[in-house]
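Cast an eye over this sequence plus tokens and explain the fold to me:
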Amino acid sequence: MSDNSNNKPSTLSSYVESATGAVQNALGNLTGNTGDKAKGEVRKENAEAEYDASQATAKLPGGTISSTGAFAKDDPRRTEGSWDQTVGAAKETLGGLVGNESLKSAGRQQNLEGQQQEAKGQLHDYGHGIGDRVQGTVGGAVSGLTGDREGQAHYESLHDKGKTQQRGAEHDIQKQGEANY
């Protein structure tokens, strides 16, 4: 079900399997063949599980690890921005508690700057991740056609790292979006 020989979960492969299962299920419905219907349903369920696995990531301090086993380190601006947000929020709270408008204003400003800094790091990681995925996919295909197994492994690793980096940024962006609602 995966896009390579290592049986790593693949989003594209899950889409193909889901479509194949839907067609097989539809044919079973048209012909009245319950076996084809059941096989089509199983195929669609397996595709859904593979899709979920292909999206799986775990955030760790300073980076992300994915279902492929790849680790991608976060852009330093993400960590620095998060730290500035925390310190800024603390200053803002303390300034409000003691009635110091200057400290409160400085804290608010530091918090906003931290948010911008973190966002820039997230965008960098997202864009860099997409670039690595594309380069890894194309390079892997070319290496596969030329029989360069070492090059193919290198580009597969680059693809996996890019996917992990992209998913880590997506995770954090989504988390921030949910926190703002």
